[in-house]
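Entry 0007
Protein: (2Fe-2S)-binding protein
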Amino acid sequence: MTRLTVNNEAVEYRLPAETPLLWALRDASNLTGTKYGCGTGSCGACTVDVDGRAVRSCQMTLAAAEGTFVTTIEGLSRDRTHPVQLALLAENVSQCGFCIPGIVMAAAVLLRRDPMPSEQAIAAAIGNVCRCGIYPRLAAAIQRAGRAIRGEERLPTGARPGVEPAGAARQVPALDPRQR
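Output (structure tokens):
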């Protein structure tokens, strides 16, 4: 049994010690924001924060994660208002969105360590692969998130059309059975 803290909750996994952290998070904890991309640690879709480091969870075993503090995209900000998330929205970075959770986690770790990163520091820290090609807007968004973290800028928090805040009750219009 492996014990660690995931999103500020003590967890005990009854899985083989060689199980990748990715599968423990996704399958045992139902934290599916951490994505399976390549399985080799190359793409970064599975990036999580482990004790303040951006880690490719497909490459870390449960044995190696024993006693650590892990934060996934779900634990970063339950209401999706972390400055990195807001800046990526404000800069219209996201396209298909598959890689975004890993990028957000890597950027959050970077900004905690360096709230004013250069483009070179961002390129070095964010090695995630994005098939949609968001890179031209990504550095600007991460620098904008840094300004928000430093208190130099306020990011818009308004909802985008078609996107509801987590936990929001969705209003569904009642249908008249005769209109079917």
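Curator remark: Residues 135-149 form the longest helix (15 residues). Helices lie at 21-28, 62-65, 73-76, 83-90, 100-113, 119-125, 135-149.
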